[in-house]
Amino acid sequence: MRIPTSTCRLQLGPAFGFAAAEAVLPYLAELGITDIYASPVLKATAGSISNYDVVDPTQLDPRLGSPDDFARILRRAHDLGLGWIQDIVPNHMAFDRDNRMLMDVLEKGGKSPYRDFFDIDWEHHDESFRGRVLAPFLGCPCGEALEQGRIRLAYDDAGLSVNYFEHRFPLRLESYPTVFTRNLGPLAAEMGENNPDFVMLLGVLYLLSAFARSDAGEQFGQLDVSRRLLRDLYLRNPAIRSFVDRTIDAFNGSPGQPASFRLLEGLLNEQLYRLAFWKVATEEINYRRFFNISELIGVRVEDERVFRHVHSLVAGLARDGRISGVRIDHVDGLSDPLRYLERLRVSAGDSFVLVEKILGLDEELPGDWPVQGTTGYDFLNFVNGVFCKTDSEPAFTRMYIGLSGSVQPPERILSEKKRLIIGKHMAGEVENLAIDVRKLAAKQRFGSDITFYGLKRAIVEVLTFFPVYRTYIRGTEVSHRDRRCILDAVGKARQAMPDLAYAFSFLERFLLQQQDDLPEEERRRWLEAVMRFQQYTGALRAKGFEDTFLYVYTRLLSLNDVGGDPARFGITRREFHDFNRRRAERWPHSLNATATHDTKRGEDARARINVLSEIPHEWERTVKRWRVLNGRRRRQVGNMIVPDPNDEYFLYQTLLGHYPLDPDEREAFVERLKAYIVKAVREAKVHTEWLKADAAYEEAYSGFIGDILRAGVRNQFLDDFHAFHRRIAHHGAFNSLSQTLLKIAAPGVPDLYQGCELWDFSFVDPDNRRPVDFRRRAEILRELQRKESGGLPRLAEELLAAKSDGRAKLFLTWRALAARRRAADLFGDGAYLPLESRGAFEKHVIAFARRRGDAWAVAAAPRFTVGLVGETGAPLGPAAWRDTEIVLPPEAPSAWRDAIAGAAVSGAGALPAAAVFAHFPAALLFNEGGP
């Protein structure tokens, strides 16, 4: 197995395909990257910007380039010594006209070879769904769309279909005779019953009808021939073409004549899908979606036949050694993650395997998973949190309550938002689950008296209080970790709804599999219901926490990211060290991420916002002053002032975190900010939301932003903001450099998100997926390489003096990655040793050692620099650090050299911080003779 030393995530797309990505590989190799970590490359929907909406997992996406282009980039990566980790999406596919497998199911039903590929409940309790799949893609109720003439029957080279704007649904085979035999008599009279083309038409229709009645799925090749013959008759015989066109027109009806749509309505009722208003899916659904996205339908990869098919291309690339690793998207969406990963391990051979698993701050990755680790959100939140000053929590909490007007504790806000998601977005899923569980409960002595209404309410409450993404029950055995999570959720739900105590007791027994006398079939159904429950907890957590709560509870926005906990104000040094020690022992090859394509804000924006934790009282005074200065710019919308206090507070933090250093970027920034704020308030679901946007609120908020950031006029706020922002950005840069150094030196594989080797002040997607100027970065790297010979200390000081251009970060990344690559064994397998500090500013430094035999490295970085150097100073030399020392283990060497700034450092038993940070505010020391 190839273990990466470092990875770089590349976001491929139509504007950055295989050829464009190939061109940047030499630069990334020079920077010190050892493995490319590529976004999905399988065929996706025509308008996809992410490639997570796959339509064919057996083909590469032609929008990215040809198979030859892909083969060429893999060869080029290999020639440069780069591995290739490929992101795949096994959980779902797009519900789209180009998903040929799904369309085949909708056309052929049970005779389709793909019938069981998708997670559809064909035996749904609602008769209108039974034997059909909901297709919730209409912009209005179905009856209205029909009578407006927007649902149309069509006939083309692919056959008969029902169309609604860009959506195309095939007609089932049984419907072909219904269409083509309507009013066939006049055509016979016109052509003559013995006309060869008419006779052929009858023969083809007979064959189609026979195929539709037959169970002989293997004859579908002949079916395709029959349809081609039918199309050929249509194209070459004017009489048949005119007959078909008239028939299609008759089915399509005429707007304003309701009776004319009865034919098409009847035809729609025959289909294997039920067209519906998109809002129907929020309350009724009979297929598993990705979260609450109706356009993404679940795939049953727990079925081995399905698994083999959807992994055929990627598994082949892995077995052939053309890719070195696989990244699994949304592993918690799968029915049985462990079984899936075991199959993947066999299928993909000795590949490096990562899972996108969102872990809570106190949660561990299941130890029996055959993977190398996660994509790094766990590391992200620990390394970010260590730059949040935990001592400031009381002051920040008082300030936030006063500024936002909200006295609700965060746990209550979260539970309310999760209930909101259940009620408005996942009601159908919960209803289905409750019905299944009620059927099982009715047969149990402890469940027979539970009403459906009470059981459903109890399920909602347990889902609401579930503390993690999911549990992993897959049989009668329940792990200690899963048992603890279930008992915690049921316990909190019982406190919130004591009148449902009996239903909660049953649910607890149900989820913990506490029934020993069930028949085998009953036990299987019981377990299936538990496993489905587990899939829903993850979806609810993602939508209720990440995509709602993180935009509502905004005490300190740097803590509001995927896998984080805004209610936990920062991470202590001890907690950070304990996390790294566990990682070194259990998951030494998990990714260390600080930014991904899904993080809520750029890594350097978080670093800036963390500075506020050092100055809570000044920050409170500043926000109050800004509110006064911008008071007249707020807008009145009905009875509401826009933005409301919480949204205005959110905006000020966002401005400080993301505001560009380059004045030339500010005009474009304002427009990007407005787009982001609209997304943020919709995600918050307080005043507006995606399902029902409030244009007045959104426009008023955007207008407020435009007013407060208008340059060229007397703007007291903007002048005040610029002065305050310069200070925050100054100290935020030091946080960023420290964070970069810790990421590269800590246990795990450092992961660079594309472009983040310079400052990254992006918003959430799609903003963070904008094109990256790799050419500029390559030029900067070449410049640094040329200047290296002039002396590293001098170069480091020069870059630090001009840190606003981001070159200091690229310099640090390059030097640290190069050192890590030279000492791959030390960082890959070496022990992790937390280092204490002492002296005047002992709390302002975080340091650890890595040791493997006689090889040593020490990583050291400043934090909380406001209290260290004041408003504009740099954390360098004796003036900043005075008597502060980093304490070394007794057996550690005394002579060291810094791989970043190149300076020699010595100390017996302790290293003076003034010497460690003499030239640059981040140090990676190796014992003399080391890398």
Short description:
With 931 residues, the protein is α/β, with parallel strands linked by helices. 47% of the residues lie in helices and 14% in strands.
Order the strands across the largest sheet as they lie in space: 16-15-14-5-2-1-20-17
Average pLDDT metric? 94
Percentage of β-strand residues: 5-15%
Please give the count of helices.
35
Radius of gyration: 31 Å
Number of separate strands: 29
Secondary structure class reads alpha/beta
Residues in helices, as a percent range: 40-55%
Spans of at least 5 consecutive residues with low confidence? none
Describe the structure.
This protein is an alpha/beta fold and 931 residues long. The protein has 35 helices and 29 strands. The strands form eight sheets. It has an eight-stranded parallel beta sheet with strand order 16-15-14-5-2-1-20-17. It has a six-stranded antiparallel beta sheet with strand order 21-23-24-29-26-27. Helices cover 47% and strands 14% of the residues.
Name a few traits of the molecule:
931 residues, alpha/beta, TIM Barrel, eight-stranded parallel β-sheet, six-stranded antiparallel β-sheet, 29 strands, 47% helix, globular
Topology:
Layout: E1 7-10, H1 18-31, E2 35-38, E3 42-44, E4 54-60, H2 67-79, E5 83-88, E6 92-94, H3 100-108, E7 133-138, H4 142-147, E8 151-156, E9 159-164, E10 167-170, H5 175-180, H6 184-191, H7 196-213, H8 220-236, H9 238-252, H10 262-269, E11 273-277, E12 289-290, E13 293-298, H11 304-310, H12 312-319, E14 325-328, H13 337-348, E15 352-355, E16 373-374, H14 377-385, H15 393-404, H16 410-425, H17 427-441, H18 452-464, H19 480-496, H20 501-511, H21 520-546, H22 573-586, E17 591-592, H23 603-610, H24 616-629, E18 635-637, E19 640-642, H25 645-658, H26 666-684, H27 695-708, H28 716-745, E20 749-753, H29 774-788, H30 792-801, H31 807-822, H32 824-829, E21 831-835, E22 837-838, E23 845-852, E24 855-862, H33 866-869, H34 877-881, E25 885-887, E26 895-898, E27 904-906, E28 910-912, H35 913-916, E29 923-927
Helix pairs in contact: 1-2, 1-29, 7-8, 8-9, 14-22, 15-24, 16-18, 16-21, 17-18, 17-21, 18-19, 19-20, 23-25, 23-28, 26-27, 28-31, 29-31
